[in-house]
């Protein structure tokens, strides 16, 4: 079995070890990032939907930074939203703060009934910059 090339953001290793998953895995020029939520360092949800979305993006950006990447390298996004009919517009008021300019990555939005106490989760696939581009 190949060893996974795991990426850990600074200061969050204990949370990932406790929950038994990798925040991101590099493979064949891509970075596959686990779903990021608006969790504080202790794993608890940030109160307030917009604050939770902002923290989810900050947590995502910490993983991307640890891999020497940025949101501009993201090619595929999946978001999970609890009660999307009620929450989508509120969430999408925050997204442009992190999304950047066009061209945008592709996206799949999934409505869910439960996210372990969270209301929003974002998972991405990144095309890593080549060594020559760094």
From TrEMBL:
Q: Which GO terms describe its molecular function?
A: deaminase activity
Q: Which InterPro entries match?
A: RutC-like_sf, YjgF/YER057c/UK114, YjgH-like
GO cellular component terms, alphabetically, are:
cytosol
Database matches in Pfam families: Ribonuc_L-PSP
Q: Where are the transmembrane segments?
A: none
> PANTHER family from the xrefs?
2-IMINOBUTANOATE/2-IMINOPROPANOATE DEAMINASE RIDA, RUTC FAMILY PROTEIN YJGH
Name assigned to this protein: Enamine deaminase RidA, house cleaning of reactive enamine intermediates, YjgF/YER057c/UK114 family
> What organism does the record attribute this protein to?
Pseudomonas matsuisoli
